[in-house]
Amino acid sequence: TWKWVVGPMFLYLCERLVRFWRSQQKVVITKVVIHPFKTIELQMMKKGFKMEVGQYIFVKCPAVSKLEWHPFTLTSAPEEDYFSIHVRIVGDWTEGLFNACGCDKQEFQEAWKLPKIAVDGPFGTASEDVFSYETVMLVGAGIGVTPFASVLKSVWYKYCHDATNLKLKKIYFYWLCRDTHAFEWFADLLQSLEAQMQERNNAEFLSYNIYLTGWDESQATHFVVHHEEEKDVITGLKQKTLYGRPNWENEFKTIAGQHPGSRIGVFLCGPEGLADTLNKQSISNSDADPRGVHFIFNKENF
């Protein structure tokens, strides 16, 4: 038995030593941005740090807890000179980080007062393959929208610098959330992308649908009253917010009809139940003929 145990234990110890060494490297918080509804953005720099879209890191703040490591998806793009995470304040540890960064104070915080941060990673996810397809469907549910912030930023940087070498030609983005107010920072990103794509006369590059799943009677009435306005009253985007949940069978059939003979990447960051639904739709809407349309499903659960 010991022959089978020693090898894996040796590899495990090596991996722990590498993680310990990486976590000891100096991390500098360059900027703390407070977003609405108790969401903060930490922009950081670390020597030798290299990332790809959709990856995540583990973060430790010794001022809050000397032992706890928490995973956060990177929301910055590889083209930016920093890496960032968005943290929503929903528990004791995130509340402690919020206070340690001085976000509970009204006055301006000096950089030297910011807490020390240890970072381990980045670690890869399925979202890294998004640039391997000409057409992709991105589906984010709730906080699962964060990896697609990195993807959409990177797409924009690549599009601006050399669009001819960009294999990706069409993005269908679906965002399912109970309350968009918690993720206003992401709506701001979509607004910026929407405006810039229109300036370059390529508004068709990004098609997005926002579904508000946790709505009540007053919201529905408000929606009906303001439906004819140019911009959505909830997000400020030209695309109107939809209520309820998407009809995935219709969505897949429509996209399959618009892109015959294509390999379409389906990327999800969301719960297991939604993953099962999208996986079944990807299989049922793919052609048996190798020359037909094929949906390739990739998931990241939380």
From TrEMBL:
It comes from Steatornis caripensis. It holds the Pfam family FAD_binding_8. Its cofactor is FAD. Keywords: Cell membrane, Electron transport, FAD, Flavoprotein, Glycoprotein, Heme, Ion channel, Ion transport, Iron, Isopeptide bond, Membrane, Metal-binding, NADP, Oxidoreductase, Phosphoprotein, Transmembrane, Transmembrane helix, Transport, Ubl conjugation, Voltage-gated channel. One of its GO terms (biological process) is superoxide anion generation. Residues 19-129 form the FAD-binding FR-type domain. One of its GO terms (molecular function) is superoxide-generating NAD(P)H oxidase activity. The lineage of its organism: Eukaryota, Metazoa, Chordata, Craniata, Vertebrata. It is found in: Cell membrane. GO terms for cellular component: monoatomic ion channel complex; NADPH oxidase complex. It catalyses: NADPH + 2 O2 = 2 superoxide + NADP(+) + H(+). It is a multi-pass membrane protein. InterPro entries: Cyt_b245_heavy_chain, FAD-bd_8, FAD-bd_FR_type, Fe_red_NAD-bd_6, FNR_nucleotide-bd, RBOH/FRE, Riboflavin_synthase-like_b-brl. The keyword Ubl conjugation applies. This is NADPH oxidase 2. Catalytic subunit of the phagocyte NADPH oxidase complex that mediates the transfer of electrons from cytosolic NADPH to O2 to produce the superoxide anion (O2(-)). In the activated complex, electrons are first transferred from NADPH to flavin adenine dinucleotide (FAD) and subsequently transferred via two heme molecules to molecular oxygen, producing superoxide through an outer-sphere reaction.
